[in-house]
Amino acid sequence: MHFNVIYFSVLKKKDFNFLTELDSIEVELESVELQISELLERQSSLNSRKMQLLMSLEEAGGSSMPSRSSQISRSGLSKQELQSYENSDFPWSKEVQEALGEVFCIAQFRPLQLQAINLTMSGKDLFLVMPTGRGKSLCYQLPAVCSKGFTLVVTPLVSLMEDQLMYLQSISVEAVCLNASSTKEHAKLVMTGMTDKHSPFKLLYVTPEKIAKSKLLMSKLEKAYNMGLLARIAIDEVHCCSQWGHDFRPDYKLLGILKRQFPKVPLIGLTATATSQVLQDCQKILCVPDTTALTARFNRPNLYYEVRCKNSQDEGPVKEIAALIKERYTDQSGIVYVFSQKDAETVSTELQKRGILAQPYHANMEAKDKSLVHRQWTNKKIQVVVATVAFGMGIDKADVRFVIHHTMSKSMENYYQESGRAGRDDNPADCIVFYGFGDIFRISTMVVMENTGQQKLQNMVAYCQNVDSCRRAMMAIHFDEVWDDDDECNQMCDVCRHGNDYITLDVTKHAQEVVQIVELASSLDEKMTPLKVLETWMGKGPAKRRKMIQVTSLSRSEVESIIVHLLLHGYFSEDFSFTPYTTYFYLKLGRKAALLKNSNHTITMKMRKKQPTASNGAVNLPLTFSLFSESAFLRSCTCQKVLIPTDTVLTSTVRPERLL
Predict the structure, then answer these.
(1) Crossing angle of helices 530-537/508-523, nearest 10°?
(2) Domain 70-296 - what CATH class?
(3) Domain residue spans of the chain
(4) pTM across the whole model
(5) Disulfide-capable partner of 288 in 35, 70, 125, 584 (CB 3.0 to 4.6 Å)?
(6) 504-642 domain in CATH 1.10.10.10?
(7) Could you read off the pLDDT of 561-594 as tens digits, one per residue?
């Protein structure tokens, strides 16, 4: 019996040693994986810089390269061949130039427009990626006017069709549409016109659903094709084809039938936002293997980008938004984007109470009410539209001076497109995001079923939390564009305007405290929402629980910041739970949590050293998550002043080209 006890003790000691060594190996493996990840980041950064230098060398050597106003990529043609399409010596060039001035009342082409028009009129398949408001529609509308037959335009929303038809009718270009609300009489007239050699219209707008579900339409298109009357196919918002796109629509995946049935008809796909991956996906779906892709620069020099914090303790940003509109944008048109239909109603009511002419706009409104709001805003009868994303694609008002996001967008793609509705007249305009802790988790539960929803949201959060990288640079890198340097911004974002006066804080101790809370909950088989974790760490909840953890003395905003930082960097991860009525977001330990057991592992965060001052003298707080009080927090952290070069990789820093 005595022998058995000794033997059991030896085994327990041996098991303990094994477990200790296993823990040590796991921690070291996590560290190695982190180093590999950082090296891959560095590799990506170096490759980007290499591409930039090669382009500069070619320019210096006299080689013909795209201008800085446009970037041409992913082309099936050589550079010389592409450049030839910038010329005005084609058989149709005189007619195109005359139509530009006489029909569309435009003096000259914008970058890439003439090239795109010549390519599509030459019968080439083409993808055109161009920022919102830079004239994508002209690249198929003008060729339609100058071509025999008609152009088929596939567009995702009926409201887009109506906007385009109103515009074309105003310049005396005949255009028609077919959608679910079309009458039988109207549909019959359109179908007859499709096979009329003297076609009464130059453009036919349809939804993708119509292509997918109407055999009669496909039959008429086939007849028009055989008669040589189907001049070209334009796919508007082409990113909707791809599941990797930010606005995937299932019926768009069926549009490959068009090129299979009508292989000799040139196709032009248009979008404001598409990464390389999205375009490659669209190429396969639409059956256009030899596509030429023209990509305009994503940079909109006249737009000022800014991020502000939401104070979770007050009534929200409505008061600040109202003050901004009244003080900075008197009698100027703008859009306030909100998260939900309820928010649209509530925020518009609050703005009205503060003397601002505002109206809500969301998908649940009657069509006539939405049209009325749109018309009133266009004609300056109201100043502000408070809208969900339903007020989106195709909004074409040139003099929008501000786009304010009451809640951040769900992705960089969405934000770029929504903010891009400002300043289409090329005059200065502001794009401001109000960013709050709770919004992250509201949006996260909304996009949980999307293929890359969480990744895209984390990219948007990283954009909002950033305090040291030019916001334009982050956008450019996200959309696969080489960004030369921050000088291109010209201080047209809050980060560049306020300079690089930052400090870096060691928050390892605080990270260990909050990770311990989630670890404890897991051991007790409990789930904790981010709010519950926050409140527990701040000492709220049962006294028994408080005795088991280290309660923090940090402020609420500081606690929020650390939790989000740990989530973005993999120390926490998402855990979703579904009920018949809602989706819950819980925090669980992430893949990097084990690294905190390593005494050599540190976590740092960046913050502004001082609060920047707005041009009007008011203190402008761009981000709670980066503006820590210089009190308890600074006393409890190791801090130092640092000057951060643009290519420096700091421990646990989110870089714009990477999602963690």
Answers:
(1) 120
(2) alpha beta
(3) 1-65, 70-296, 303-498, 504-642
(4) 0.74
(5) 125
(6) yes
(7) 899 999 999 999 999 999 988 999 999 999 999 9
